[in-house]
Structures are given as structure tokens and as C-alpha cells.
Amino acid sequence: xxxxIPLEYYYDVYINFILFLVLCILVxxxxxxxxxxxxxxxxxxxxxxxxxxxxxxxxxxxxxxxxFTDMSTYALSFELYQAGNPLYMDGDLGFELFTYALAxxxxxxxxxxxxxxxxxxxxxxxxxxxFPNYYLFAFIMLLASFSFYTYGVNGMRNGIASSLFILGIxxxxxxxxxxxxxxxxxxxxxxxxxxxxxxxxxxxxxxxxKYLLFWLFSIAISIAIGPTLVSLFSQLxxxxxxxxxxxxxxxxxxxxxxxGFRYDFVLYSAVPVFAGYYFIIKRNFSDVLYKRIxxxxxxxxxxxxxxxxxxxxxxFAYLSWFLMAIVIxxxxxxxxFWKNQFYRIGIFTTLYFGFTYxxxxxxxx
Length: 365
Description:
Elements: H1 10-31, H2 37-59, H3 71-82, H4 93-105, H5 108-130, H6 135-143, H7 150-153, H8 156-170, H9 175-188, H10 193-201, H11 208-236, H12 241-248, H13 263-282, H14 288-306, H15 313-321, H16 324-334, H17 341-364
Helix pairs in contact: 1-17, 2-5, 2-6, 3-4, 4-9, 5-6, 5-8, 6-16, 8-9, 10-14, 11-12, 11-14, 13-14, 13-16, 14-15, 14-16, 16-17
């Protein structure tokens, strides 16, 4: 267990480590063309190093409910199963089975390490599937996302479920395997029902302009009848019972950052919307899977915007935000759009992480 780093600096070590890597990538993209052998070596070795480092660093973190809020709750559930409690059948059954099985054969530290592996490894595999020559850049974009750390050390079930969803859609050419993984995703956390339903819808409605109009319409709807929609969403339970409960829970005095209409988060959410519009509408990028990912993002993010004023609506926002890095980087890692495109990859990665670096210190302050 990593207990030599004070817990109050645990996040600082992580975020500044990612900052260092992002700056290294920025230097590489400014000094190389993208076709050198060293890029392929960097792709291979740095990605693997990142994977191993984060599994160790996050997986072997000390058990703390103060700094990793839900970690103590997960630890308590594990210990109750070790003590002989029966399997809890009314929760997220996939995650309960995972916890129950490990409680019978392993330690609490093994449980948290395997949880982190299930969170990060699918992102690594999906990046390699989509971008065999440049998967480092997609992988680090995912790791540099605003919510990555939070859902690795706190909302672990949500994090694992969303990573499995990404892996599932990356395996879309193998339909049976994709369905199995998406089923596992929703069994880990019921909130994945919404992205899965949105992804299914993308097979039947293929016009990107309709999804963009829906997203814009959702802002107007939120302003007009936001509180009414909050009540409706909590009753429908599209994000699962626990997530629906957050929408109706009164926040404590310490939770002011999670309440009210978040204009900053709406602007943040608009970045991949603009990216999708630019690549598909303006540059005629015709990748079918990318359109489905973008359409899934637009549906889920639009649904969140409608209930933006709800307490803890940021937890609902994650149902779209976990796709944000892919929506932004997928086109320019698949196709050439600009002259000297490689250095732009470094700029985009730095700007994307810049928001995370800035906002996370406000959020965690």
C-alpha cells in the first residue's frame, strides 16, 4: 500500500504527473512529424508505463473515506461479505457479484487493485483498437479528462461501467462480444442504461443535424422548465435508482459546487459538440462509429443539460463526459485534416488537459 505520500497531496501528485506527460507529448509533437520510429516506440512504452503506474498508484492507495469519499463504503461492503453476509440482490448485481467473489478469496487491497484494472485497462484496449499507430494520444486524453480521477478513487462503479461501455463500442464489429460487454457495463452500474439506449437509438436515427438541434433545444428547455424535468427524470429512473436519488437529495453546505445551473460545465460540454459539428458537418468526416459515439454523447449530454439545476447533476453529466475525449480526438487520430497535423495533436491534448488542471483545483479546493 502506498502510505508514504500524504493523502492531502495524493491528487496533486497524480495531476502534476499527467501534466508532465502532456508537456512531454507537446514537445514531441512540435519536434517530430508523427511518422518516426520513435513515435511508435513512445506509443508502445509510454502507454504501457502509464497503465502500470496508474494501476499501482491508484490501486494501492490507502483506504480513506475522507479523501476518497466512497472508498470506505466499498471497503465496508467488502468486509461484510467477508464476515458472511449474503449477496445483496437489490443493487448493481454485477458489481455485487464481483465484490462478493473477491471477498471470499482475496484481500481488500486486491479488490481495489482489480477495480482499478477494470477501470483503466478497457480504456487502454479501446485506444489500441481504434488507433493502432497513435493510441498513446487517445489513452492520455482519456486519463486527462476532468472526471477520470474522481471515478477511479470515488465513484468506482460508475467508472468501471463507463470504461466497459467504451470497450464494448470499440468492439462493435464483433456484435455478440459488444452486447455481452455492454450488458456487463449496465450490471456494474444501472446508470449505463441511458448511454446504451442512446447508442441503440443512433442505429436508427442517423442525421447528425437532428442530434445537434436536440442538444441546442435542451438548453432552452432547461431554462424554461428545468425544475419540472428534474422531478420527471427522478421518477423515470433512467440513470438508475441511486442516481435518481441524487437528483432529489438536498445538498449540504459543503456541496455548493455541485448545485445550481453550471454555465461553466455547459460550456465545457459544448467543446465536443463543436468538434463533432466541425468534423462531420464542415469536414465531411463519414466514419459511422464516430457518428454513433457523437450522437450518444449529444443525447446523454442534452438530457443532463435539461436537469442542470438539480442537486448533484454533475453525477448525471458524467454519463456523457466519459465520452468527451473520444468525441474530440477520434477524427484527427483517424484521418488527416490539416497540414502539419501532428503538432496540432499536442496542442489539442494540452488545451483539453488545461481545463482539467484549472477546474480540478477549483473543484477539489
